[in-house]
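Input record, target 12 of the design panel.
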């Protein structure tokens, strides 16, 4: 089992209580939040409900993005196939956990973000 180096701290209880996957995937979906419009199409297609809305439905006044809970993604690629903005790279698991913080501006899963790896935190550009 490869250590999830994109993990920053414990997941919030509402996310942590969702069923865990059975084994580590070969591929990992990583949302490039710079290109995400928050359309939620990927959420509809994810078979394991591991794509979370950022910052959350109770913050409707903010631009919504999504992120993948790395510990629950099974790498099926359905989200990437259906994203209208082509902003979900499918990476090998090892590459994905390495790359995810660079592509993440905000997280509700307590995963590392660009700020945590010393990159610019300017708001993502919108199409
Ligand atoms: S389908 Fe693509 S643009 Fe829409 S919320 Fe998901 S990642 Fe963002
Ligand atoms: S690859 Fe599959 S399991 Fe992972 S986030 Fe996308 S739809 Fe969900």
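The sequence produced for target 12 reads:
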């Amino acid at each position: 089992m490869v250590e999830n180096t994109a993990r920053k701290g414990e997941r919030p209880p509402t996310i942590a209580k969702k069923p865990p996957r059975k084994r580590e995937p070969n591929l990992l979906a990583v949302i490039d939040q710079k290109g995400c419009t928050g359309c939620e199409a990927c959420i509809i297609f994810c078979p394991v409900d591991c794509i979370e809305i950022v910052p959350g439905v109770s913050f409707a006044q903010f631009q919504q993005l999504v992120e993948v809970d790395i510990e629950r993604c099974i790498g099926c690629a359905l989200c990437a196939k259906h994203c209208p903005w082509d902003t979900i790279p499918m990476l090998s698991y090892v590459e994905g956990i390495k790359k995810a913080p660079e592509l993440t501006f905000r997280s509700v899963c307590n995963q590392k973000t660009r700020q945590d790896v010393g990159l610019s935190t300017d708001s993502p550009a919108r199409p």
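The first strand starts at residue 27 and ends at 29.
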